[in-house]
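job 3f2a | input accepted
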Amino acid sequence: LPRETWPQKALSTMRLEAMSLGAAACVLLLSLQASAFSPTSLPLSRSSFAPSSSARHSLRTPVAATSLNSRRSSIAPLRSAKTPKVSMGVDLATADPKDVRVLVAGCTGYIGRFVTKELIKRGYNVVAFSRDKAGVGGKKSMDDIRADFQGADVRFGDVTDMKSLEEVGFKDKVDVVVSCLASRTGGIQDSNDIDYQASLNCLNALRAQGGSHYVLLSAICVQKPLLEFQRAKLKLEEAIQAQDDVTYSIVRPTAFFKSLAGQVSIVKGGNPYVMFGDGEICKANAISEADLAIVMADCITEKDRYNKVLPVGGPGEPVTPLQQSEILFNLFDKEPKYIKVPIAVFDGIIGTIEFFSKFFPSLVDTAEFAKIGRYYATEDMVGPSYGTTTLEDFFKDVAENGLQGQELGDQAVFNIDGK
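job 3f2a | predicted structure (419 res):
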């Protein structure tokens, strides 16, 4: 799942009650025409998924999350590149965490928050590097961010500005960078600015200081790069593997639970579940934010994860949208109702927008957003299994405690208000 200004707010909560198939298609067309369309509303998050080619990896036995040692995960690497030179810095496997300075870029993002807090809990000397206004829609102030990351050295700057990184983020020697940066829109410029350049800036700053290790939150979908943000991420991965100054771990998660939560409140309210095609496509084994944060943190000390690309999914078998809907209808004791949108709707929308983009360049990004939507309406998102929290566990928790902390953001079509 790369971060981060919205070009404008898109459509908010959409009533789906008694909506016909034709009306659903119109809603999709309108949302895709908005300049801030988000794939998180489809209902999957664009930064979270992998193609079905990774399904060949065998599932791993879940690990109990009762202690630091027992939470160590076993993940099969996808591949490794050339071995970088051995760093002359601190030995991360044996060093006392308090003596290891870890800078987290993208700390206020959905996964970044959990990673930062996991690192704080483990006792690392954490630098949380953030914009002065962050979070969904820039609603978090500096005081909010400091309060959220008690125990960390919270610093404010701009990851797209090398001077800001060097003078603020890296003013003290940094041993490890954990980059959770990701573009919010997936637009062409945004993808290259954040998914590629901003994370590369962090890598270069670490190398210049003689740091030790770089951990990147990527996405398995780069294995099938059809979209601009995927190409930007893949370009960054290649740059990381081409250098030999620091070791690295590239983590490619499948789906985040957040990206499957968009229709929880809709079904709870007795409205139809919206799915594409027959609901049997784009299956995913999503991973919880807490389990993924453990994976990311373990990459600092687990040397068998150095210089590897690591695909990561959640526990259990992949679940289709139809199976997701069945869980929700059973959970809320609702009669199943569906709105099934043909995949061909995307093809028509994409073709129309691309035609007009020849005359109106501002529509180029809109066409890209539509392509993102189609990608996640048709591609399986499957990776090796890790962790203990299943999607059904997540839905049950949501039913009891609501969706606080699972807000999809300004661009969501299936809006989550945290209630």
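job 3f2a | The two ends are 24 Å apart (CA to CA).
job 3f2a | closed
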